[in-house]
Amino acid sequence: xAESKVKRIxxxxxxxxxxxxxxxxxxxxxxxxxxxxxxxxxxxxxxxLINGDFTTLDFNSVSGLSRRGGTMLYSARSKEFMTEAGQxxxxxxxxxxxxxxxxxxxxxxxFRGLQVLARRGIAVIGVPGTIDNDISxxxxxxxxxxxxxxxxxxxxxxxxxxxxxxxxxxxxxMGRHAGHxxxxxxxxxxxxxxxxxxxxxxxxxxxxxxxxxxxxxxxTHFMVIVAEGVKGGAYEVAxxxxxxxALDTRVTILGHVQRGGAPSARDRVTATHMGYEAVRLLxxxxxxxxxxxxxDRYVDFDIEEALSMKKSLxxxxxxxxxxxxGMEQVKLRQE
Length: 335
Ligand SMILES: Nc1ncnc2c1ncn2[C@@H]1O[C@H](COP(=O)(O)OP(=O)(O)O)[C@@H](O)[C@H]1O
Ligand SMILES: O=P(O)(O)OC[C@H]1O[C@](O)(COP(=O)(O)O)[C@@H](O)[C@@H]1O
Ligand SMILES: [Mg+2]
Hints:
The protein is an alpha/beta fold. The chain has two domains: 8-143 and 263-294, Rossmann fold, CATH 3.40.50.450; 146-259 and 314-325, Phosphofructokinase domain (Rossmann fold). It has helices spanning 21-34, 45-51, 84-97, 108-119, 144-165, 180-188, 203-216, 233-245, 265-283, 303-308, 315-325, and strands at 8-13, 38-42, 54-57, 101-106, 124-128, 168-173, 193-195, 222-227, 249-253, 289-294, 297-302. The strands form two sheets. A seven-stranded mixed β-sheet has the order 3-2-1-4-5-10-11, with helices on both faces. A four-stranded parallel β-sheet has the order 7-8-6-9, with helices on both faces. α7 links the parallel β7 and β8 (222-227). α6 runs parallel beside α11. Bound molecules: adenosine-5'-diphosphate (ADP), 1,6-di-O-phosphono-beta-D-fructofuranose and magnesium ion. Magnesium ion (MG) binds at residues 15, 107-109, 130, 132, 134.
């Protein structure tokens, strides 16, 4: 790699934490050390950047980090950073510490924050870390695989008891605005139906009819997966099912349990690659870029372009689900 002007970089995690964020931190630090670059860990996301809350990181301070869930740098959502005054203070911290480049790990909100910093001349690289998998320029975001597996593990347990009592289980998984997690988990655990925010929900067609069909085919227990972002959430969906079918319907909200735990192999490996790519880009003098994964390759996009892209739902997965469960193609919202 060519001789670089980059001597000191910062790394931070922001927004909802995701399994694999620690592995990104480790990779950024170890890559930086390898390239003779000093590394500063900014704690608590943009909140820490505003308040100069940091720690120095070296080879040893990130030992054994890949396998740990959560983030050693803590994460936060910062209202203050949404204001110009907050952004001024964050930029002042970068200047005071002499940071030549900043790696931010988080979701779409974190990337919008990086966009602000990039526009104001700070060298930034974004790494996609969110269990929602809702970053448009990347087919995959760090944490998604682990969160899906955690949800599946819980749903398998629920299925045992639902089967014994011949009940209908309505399980709410995370996903503020996006149904990727719900759809993927739904396929993996053989759900009767999946309800997501992208869908123009027709209760009779999308929910009640699949349950009826399953009953006619001999099923006496049912599994419905609802994404958190659906209007009314799992309770509203359960009420509709109860009213239409009189089934004994129970709601389980999986909640933050999905964000914890040791990252899967996929999340550790993706995080390690992306952390390396982030430092490589900074060393090459690149700025205002975000890293993504496309067809098994690691790629980078201009942050402006990345944030203007739209991520569509995996319609093929719906088609396959329909073939297996009798759930018909749903109508998606036109944005
Ligand atoms: N439009 C924006 N401009 C500046 N900063 C933003 C913007 N949107 C989000 N942020 C910052 O990024 C933080 C994390 O965003 P959030 O949406 O909560 O999580 P995530 O990055 O996981 O999607 C916010 O708390 C805020 O400080
Ligand atoms: O932990 P909080 O602040 O309650 O946030 C919950 C939200 O965070 C997430 O787990 C992850 O979303 P982000 O990655 O965008 O922060 C969402 O699925 C969920 O809606
Ligand atoms: Mg987000």
